[in-house]
Specification:
heterodimer; A: about 270 residues; alpha+beta; seven-stranded antiparallel β-sheet; six-stranded antiparallel beta barrel; 13 strands; about 35% helix; about 25% strand; B: about 170 residues; mainly alpha; about 0% strand; globular
Chain lengths: ~270, ~170
C-alpha cells in the first residue's frame, strides 16, 4: 500500500484578505497595470449607454401613455397649422409672382408710352394645325380693335387680326404668316424681319445684312417700323445664327420670350 | 330638322372640344379633328343630303373660331359630308373596314384640300412634309374614333325616332 494522500493545504483566510489589499494597493500605484481601468470602461460603456437609452425611452413611452389623447389632439392641431401655413405660402408665392408681374408691367408701360393695358384671357385656340392663333375674351366694346397688340410682361405675343364686339382673334408672332419688324439689342443695332416657322415655336429673323455682327443671346425687340407694333417690345433672344458666305443676308433663329403654349396674364395695348 | 338640330348640338360639343383639348393633344403628337369625325359619322348614318348640311354647319362653327378665311371649312366639310353620304348609299352596308378607310381617306383629303385652298388664297403654308406629319397621325386618330362616334350618332338618331313614335 502506498502512503495515504496528504490532505490539501488551504491558505489561511487572512492570506486572501492580504492578497486583495496588496493587489488593490498595487493598482493604486502608477504603472502599466493602470491600463486595466480602460479595459473595464471599454467593455462596460456600450452596455451602460444601451441600458441608459432604453431606460430613457421606456420612461418616455410610459410617461406619455397617460397623455396619448392630449398628444393626438396636439398632433392634429399641428397638422392643421402646417396645412394652413402651406396654403399661406402658396398664396404668398402667387402674390410675389403678381408683384413681379406688376413691376414688369409698369416698366412695360414706361417703354410703350401713353396708352392703357387691358387685361384679357385666352378663351380658345385655333383648331387648325397650320395656324397659330387664339381667341381672347375682349372685343371692340372693350377697346380692342384690329391690329391691337397683345403682350405679357415678358414680351410680345401677337396682334389682333379680327375683332367682334365681345371677342377678338389674335395671330401669334409664331405663326407662319406673321411678320414683325425687329431690332437686335447689340452694338450694330441690326434690324430685320421676324417670321414664325412651320413647326414648333421657333422664330427666324431674315434679311440681316451679312456684315452685321449677330451673337447668340442678343435680345430681339420690335423696331417700331411697320406701324403695328410699338418700338421696344421684347420679342425673344437669338438662339442660333445661320450665316453663309455666298449669301448677302444672314438669318438668326430666335427663342420667343413668351411661350405661346403657356399664355397667362395677357394685356392688349390700347390707346387712351 | 330635329336631326339637324341634334347634329348641331353634337358639333358644338365637338368644336368646343377641338378648341379646348386639341392643342393639349397636339403636344402629345395626336390631333384628331373632332367636328370632322362627327360629320363623317353623321353622313354615313344619314346619307348625302344631311351629310352636306351637317358638314356645312360644322364648317361654319370652325370658321367662326379659326383664323382661316371664313367659308373655307364650311365648303370643304360640306363637300366631304356629301361625298361620304353618297358612299354610304352605294358602299356602306355594315362594312366595318369602311369606317376606318373613310376616316383615313376623308382626313387626308380634308388636310390636302385645306393646304391647297389656303395656299391659293395667299397664306404661307408649311412644307408639304410638315402637312403630312400633321395629317397622317390625325387620319389614324380619326379612323379610330369614327366607330364610337358613329355609335353615338346612331343612338341620338334612334332616340329621336323614339320620341316621334311617342308623339304619334
Amino acid at each position: 500500500m502506498g502512503p495515504p494522500d496528504s490532505p490539501r493545504r488551504r491558505l489561511p483566510r487572512w492570506a486572501t484578505t492580504v492578497l486583495v489589499v496588496v493587489v488593490a494597493v498595487v493598482l493604486l500605484l502608477p504603472g502599466p497595470w493602470r491600463q486595466a481601468e480602460k479595459l473595464g470602461t471599454t467593455v462596460l460603456a456600450p452596455i451602460q449607454m444601451g441600458v441608459a437609452l432604453t431606460s430613457d425611452e421606456v420612461g418616455s413611452v410610459l410617461g406619455a401613455l397617460p397623455r396619448v389623447r392630449e398628444l393626438n389632439e396636439q398632433n392634429r392641431d399641428y397638422r392643421e397649422e402646417i396645412s394652413r401655413l402651406e396654403t399661406e405660402l402658396v398664396r404668398l408665392r402667387e402674390l410675389e409672382v403678381e408683384n413681379n408681374d406688376l413691376r414688369n408691367l409698369l416698366s412695360l408701360m414706361q417703354r410703350t408710352g401713353p396708352g392703357t393695358l387691358l387685361p384679357v384671357s385666352v378663351i380658345a385656340r385655333d383648331d387648325s394645325p397650320y395656324v397659330q392663333a387664339i381667341t381672347i375674351d375682349r372685343g371692340t366694346t372693350g377697346g380692342v380693335h384690329e391690329n391691337s397688340v397683345l403682350v405679357t410682361h415678358r414680351g410680345l405675343v401677337g396682334k389682333v387680326v379680327s375683332a367682334n364686339p365681345t371677342t377678338a382673334k389674335v395671330l401669334l408672332i409664331t405663326d407662319l404668316n406673321q411678320q414683325v419688324a425687329v431690332r437686335l439689342q447689340s452694338e450694330a443695332r441690326t434690324t430685320g424681319v421676324l417670321r414664325g416657322q412651320a413647326q414648333g415655336n421657333a422664330l427666324v429673323i431674315e434679311y440681316i445684312p451679312h456684315n452685321d455682327a449677330v451673337s447668340v443671346g442678343d435680345v430681339v425687340m420690335t423696331s417700331g417700323l411697320g406701324e403695328v407694333y410699338p418700338e421696344g417690345l421684347v420679342v425673344g433672344k437669338v438662339a442660333r445664327v445661320q450665316r453663309k458666305d455666298a449669301e448677302p443676308f444672314q438669318s438668326a433663329a430666335v427663342e420667343p420670350a413668351v411661350d405661346p403654349t403657356k399664355l397667362e396674364r395677357l394685356y392688349v395695348l390700347a390707346d387712351e | 330638322m330635329t336631326h339637324l338640330l341634334a347634329a348641331t348640338g353634337l358639333l358644338l360639343v365637338a368644336t368646343l372640344g377641338q378648341t379646348l383639348l386639341a392643342p393639349a393633344l397636339a403636344s402629345l403628337g395626336v390631333r384628331p379633328d373632332l367636328p370632322l369625325i362627327v360629320v363623317l359619322a353623321w353622313a354615313m348614318l344619314r346619307g348625302s343630303n344631311e351629310g352636306a348640311a351637317v358638314g356645312f354647319i360644322a364648317g361654319i362653327l370652325l370658321d367662326s373660331v379659326s383664323y382661316t378665311p371664313f367659308g373655307v371649312n364650311s365648303a370643304l366639310m360640306g363637300i366631304l359630308g356629301y361625298c361620304v353620304g353618297l358612299a354610304e348609299t352605294n358602299l356602306y352596308r355594315g362594312n366595318l373596314p369602311f369606317f376606318f378607310a373613310t376616316g383615313v381617306a376623308a382626313t387626308l383629303l380634308y388636310h390636302a384640300a385645306m393646304f391647297l385652298v389656303l395656299q391659293a388664297m395667299g397664306l404661307t403654308m408649311p412644307p408639304i412634309l410638315a402637312v403630312l406629319q400633321v395629317a397622317g397621325p390625325a387620319a389614324l386618330a380619326n379612323a379610330l374614333l369614327i366607330a364610337p362616334v358613329f355609335l353615338l350618332c346612331r343612338r341620338v338618331v334612334r332616340t329621336i325616332a323614339g320620341w316621334r313614335q311617342l308623339r304619334l
